[in-house]
Design brief:
Radius of gyration: 14 Å
Structural class: alpha/beta
Strand content: 15-25%
Distance between the termini: 23 Å
Mean pLDDT: 75
Low-confidence stretches: 28-32
Largest sheet: 3 strands, parallel
Number of strands: 5
């Protein structure tokens, strides 16, 4: 599926968070790192600021959609979640990735 960001955001700014997977993640990297990881805390702490500025907020991870939905309901994530096992943004942007169990993950 292709996501047309302009259809999601219109004229609003789009804030994207890339959920990392690491060797220290639960289930051998099939979950993002602990929710108190500094980048995630900073992103979460600014949610109200993003919304106050009329930003559309989205998160990308390689997790299947079902796992994303379960994690979102457990952690009160309310922003758009995009499952991206192919790491498509890395094709266009210089985003760091790592390999865990023969799978590439966002860093």
């Amino acid at each position: 599926m292709t996501v047309d960001v302009s259809e999601l955001t219109g004229e609003s700014p789009f804030v994207i968070y890339f959920y990392p997977g690491t060797p220290c993640s639960f289930d051998d990297g099939h979950d993002s790192p602990a929710l108190d990881a500094a980048p995630h805390r900073a992103f979460s702490a600014r949610q109200a600021d993003f919304l106050a500025r009329n930003c559309v907020v989205g998160g990308f991870s390689i997790q299947p959609h079902e796992e994303q939905r379960a994690a979102a309901s457990e952690t009160d994530i309310e922003h758009l979640l995009v499952t991206d096992p192919e790491l498509r943004p890395t094709w266009h942007f210089d985003l760091r990735t790592s390999t865990v169990d023969n799978l590439r993950w966002y860093c």
